Amino acid sequence: MKKFVKAAIAAIVIIAAVFGIWKWKSSDNSSVTQYEYRTDEAATGRISRTISASGTVEPEELINVGSQVTGKIMSFGTDLEGKPVDYRSKVKKGMVLAQIDDVLYAAELRQRKAEKLQAEASITTANAKIKQADAKLQLSKLNWSRAQDLYSKKAMAKSDYDTAESAYITALADRAAANASLKQAEAQLAIAEAALIKAQRNMDYCVITSPVDGIIIDRRVSVGQTVVSNMSVSSIFLIAKDFKKMQVWVSVNEADIGNIREGLNVEFTVDTYPDVVFTGKVKKVRLNATMSQNVVTYIVEVDTDNRNGKLLPYLTANVKFIMAERDNVLNISSAALRFTPPEGTLSADDAEKVANGAPEGERFIFVTDENSKLRLVAVKTGLNAGGRIEVISGNLKDGDHVVIAASERRPDSQISKNGPARSPFMPTPTKRQPRGAGSAAKRARAQQNSK
């Protein structure tokens, strides 16, 4: 019996000791702050440093076809498919785009031709008069010569001598007048020819032809509409010369324009193809800046290939100028370089290394293992672009979990034994009394007891 009592006492003592040790361990662990780490994987890929801007897709060469004469549009020409010229029509150089009413211009042309014929007839008449004047001049000259000879021999009266002299002088004047008439007729012919050229050109302008091979971007008139030519040429069609080559006109802020140079690689997307990345190169930086709301911007022309025909004029482009890039390099989030581990989470060796500072040219980052323990890694970094930074060297490999932030884990002691803690701002639910605990039940029990 005594042995049994001793054994029971010993068992109780052992159980109490084990419980005490477990309780002490639990209280000790609960006093240590636990942390949860937010990580980002190290990855191998492409990173780039860019300047972002927005722009508009434009045809590389755009021709505004207009009318130099006033008149009513009578008809449109046909495109390469045999259809009337309209939006998206493909045309060749010299093809008829539109016909303007030419009745008035045709009448003017006939009038100018008649004036030219009249001027030519005047020249013929002037030449005939010159020949007549030459004949009269020759006769008067002979008569004047004979009169001088006879008068010197006293064989001619003074009146006849004077008549011969006057006839000779008159013939000279008539010859000069005939020459002047010829020059006047020639001048009239030149005026008539100039008027004829103008009338012929106006007549030709009644037929609107395509100056280049291209595509009709815009048709700005309709059949029956009158176009008026004034100080500026009336616009009828807008033709893109070549859709295989397009440009993006990008508005770049004055703070970034100094970094843009010709030949710089460019990537851009358009809203209609959000998953397609188009490429191009900077062709030109325009110097005529514009100011809007005190912001100065410059237009940068970017050439791009459009052989697939996806890009359409006037699409909005989201542009990135590639200032620097690296392909197939190990990179991490730049937030990893700003992370500072909480006190007490590092081993003694790692804590001492952090206190001494990283070696020259290197930076400290922290990675987690399977047990969520921090491990110190020294890396040499390169290009910093777009929130990612290149890792040139260091004990880091693809897929490692790099710590970028830490937060305290909620201790278990804060969790109520009766359930999760409630917010003090939430209303407290009304306690329901157990069945039979109301006043009616109490009166029934009191009656039974009185009996």
Residue stretches low in confidence (pLDDT < 50, at least 5 long) are 413-426, 428-437
Strand content: 25-35%
| Gyration radius, in Å | 52 Å
First-last Cα distance: 55 Å
Inertia-based shape = rod-shaped
Alpha-beta content class: alpha+beta
Secondary structure layout plus pairing:
Layout: H1 2-31, E1 35-41, E2 43-59, E3 62-67, E4 71-76, E5 90-91, E6 96-100, H2 103-152, H3 158-205, E7 207-209, E8 214-219, E9 226-227, E10 234-240, E11 245-253, E12 265-270, E13 273-285, E14 290-292, E15 295-305, E16 316-333, H4 348-356, E17 363-368, E18 374-385, E19 388-394, E20 401-408, H5 439-450
Antiparallel strand pairs: 1-20, 2-11, 2-16, 3-10, 4-6, 4-9, 5-8, 6-7, 8-10, 11-15, 12-13, 12-16, 13-15, 14-15, 16-19, 17-18, 18-19
Helix pairs in contact: 2-3
Descriptive terms for the model:
about 450 residues, alpha+beta, 6-stranded antiparallel beta barrel, 4-stranded antiparallel beta sheet, 5 helices
Describe the structure.
This protein has 451 residues and is α+β, with helices and mostly antiparallel strands. The protein has helices at 2-31, 103-152, 158-205, 348-356, 439-450; strands at residues 35-41, 43-59, 62-67, 71-76, 90-91, 96-100, 207-209, 214-219, 226-227, 234-240, 245-253, 265-270, 273-285, 290-292, 295-305, 316-333, 363-368, 374-385, 388-394, 401-408. A six-stranded antiparallel barrel has the order 2-11-15-13-12-16. It has a four-stranded antiparallel β-sheet with strand order 3-10-8-5, with no helix packed on it. Strands 7-6-4-9 form a four-stranded antiparallel β-sheet. Helix 2 (103-152) runs antiparallel to helix 3 (158-205). It is rod-shaped, with a radius of gyration of 52 Å. Residues 413-426 and 428-437 have low confidence and may be disordered.
